[in-house]
Amino acid sequence: MDPNEAEIDRIRRACTRWLAWHGDRTAAGLLSELPTDITPDRYGDGGVVEELETYLADLLGMPAAAFFVSGTMAQQIALRIHADRRNHRTIAFHPTSHVEMHEGGAFERLHHLVGRPVGDPYGPLTLESLEEVAEPLGALLLELPQREIGGQLPDWEDLLAQTAWARDRGAAIHLDGARLWQCPPAYDRPLEEIAGLFDSVYVSFYKDLGALAGSGLVGPEDFIAEAREWRLRHGGTLFAMWPYAASALASVRSRLPRMKSYRDHGLAIAGALRDLDRVRVVPDPPHTSMFHLHLGISSEVFKANALRIAEEEGIWTWKTTFPGTHPDWQIIELTVGDSTLDFEPGEVGDLITRLVAD
Asked: Full-prediction pTM beyond 0.85?
């Protein structure tokens, strides 16, 4: 008999080691990371929210920044402003973009924008694909790295060509940088140089950094001022935003310096997995500290193996898989974080071998 969700949760909470990301982010653990000298904000003004915004703008080399409790809200607002200012409603993006796959069509239903998916769903966006677009654009949305295809990145020269193409067309260039923190080690370039290619940049504070929640939006001062007005209209200016902002500031300061070690460890793990039967590393080698594993196993057998390892050895790997392009193949995502650093590449190889065993 398959265990129910309560039993799975009991097994998960009993684990002492976590293969992916930063492990079990408990409420107590998250709160313990907050500084003791926090100054609260009021409706987003002052205090640690302002401190975070100043820090973020300086970090990314932009004139101004605004804190948002939701990245979905921040991105919709950014695209709306760009479209309004250029009087073009069409937004171009990769077919696996977050705004296309995970936001319930909000850019269309809330902001009356028109989405234009461009390029191969299984590879990074390219200049060649963009050059097939003839209609005027309000904005080009690029995602670095592209999560749904295993953290892939365009090469630097093609990224320069894509942003130049959009600028020559009069389109704004917005970066979905939810995981931008992973990019400097991959491109061997500082954050401000990467961010400087764009008119606006969104970053997440929890996806890589492990904060409570929240995101930042950076850009020119007049752009951010308008974004703050839209934030109010979206109901995003909470009475007290300081717990999220304080967690974000603590997390970016502590984990941003570790991004290179995450990527280096991910590359070593990928090397240990490369020649395993029924295991494919995507992309190979990984571009960033996040990559996908395509596994030749059924979802039911994988889940049973993962729960057995969790219960018998106290190691939490994955709860479930994502379907691959063939019924006999499944996909899992490995984001390397603090907890992953505790596993030697060979140990990860052994775990994956047992996860795909019939």
From this structure: yes
